[in-house]
Amino acid sequence: MSTPAAGPAPGTATADGTAARARGLTKAYGSGETAVLALDSVDVAIARGRFTAVMGPSGSGKSTLMHCLAGLDTVSAGEVWIGDTEITGLKERELTRLRRDRIGFMFQSFNLIPTLNAVENITLPMDIAGQKPDRKWLDQIIDTLGLRDRLKHRPAQLSGGQQQRVACARALASRPELIFADEPTGNLDSRAGLEVLGILREAVDSLGQTVVMVTHDPNAAAHSDLVLFLADGRIVDEMAEPTAEAVLERMRLFSGSGTQATAPEEE
Ligand SMILES: Nc1ncnc2c1ncn2[C@@H]1O[C@H](COP(=O)(O)OP(=O)(O)OP(=O)(O)O)[C@@H](O)[C@H]1O
Ligand SMILES: [Mg+2]
Questions:
Q1: Nearest atom of ligand 1 to the alpha carbon of 108
Q2: Which residue, among 108, 103, 125, 129, has the nearest Cα to 19 in the 3D structure?
Q3: How many domains does the chain have?
Q4: Is 265 within the bounds of a domain?
Q5: Ligand 1 pocket test: which of 39, 64, 259 has the largest number of ligand atoms within 8 Å of its C-beta?
Q6: Segment 97-123, tens digit of pLDDT
Q7: E-assigned strands of 189-261?
Q8: Which residues constitute the domain of residue 64?
């Protein structure tokens, strides 16, 4: 069940305001009998300078929500804002510029350019924007993510985890105010996963960036400030100050209760 328009949307904003928000966000794929309602009138507000995690079963609409919030996909109905700008009303050119200047996106499928090597992939968005990377920051990201000796490799010459780390570095390189990360630790061993989570946490705590991260891992979600739970294209619950144990418990309740808006009383 999505929150009524009158009440505060899940992911309720702090005094710093909202980095992104949506109202009545609906996304349908296909039509007729094969139509899929990936998002069903979602109201959400992503607090600025916070780390929000998005969880939910496979197919519940997590990636679709991220893509729509980041202006990477069109919506079927509803409105989406980045900061004070309603992006659902923007022309493609303006949207492209806004995305480029303000958003970093780590795709579930990495989306690396096969003909470019690792470091070229990392700096590509900035190259396109005609910006010079901050060398010190870039070095720090590359070293933290353990990519130093892979910079000249093309994606096909990298392992899945290494490609994921390149995608991570690319999203962080320009220090965008808003970072979307779709299962950024999905292909990483626990040490590399912790490095990525540490970087995202640092982006929020030290640099004031806003992070929205999809994850299936309660331990990863525990690094966030707030978890939003999706089921069947709706936000069905949220949890502030999550611990891995509490998230796991909540997931157990949901897996037995289908699309129920609230956790059942008894297990
Ligand atoms: N391009 C598309 N065309 C048709 N249906 C789509 C398309 N993209 C997603 N869907 C459908 O929309 C629903 C939500 O998909 P989405 O990718 O957002 O799920 P998800 O929560 O990210 O899942 P996962 O955890 O597996 O990544 C799914 O039922 C999916 O099959
Ligand atoms: Mg997904």
A1: 27
A2: 103
A3: 1
A4: no
A5: 64
A6: 999 999 999 998 889 999 999 999 999
A7: 210-214, 226-231, 234-240
A8: 46-71+100-254
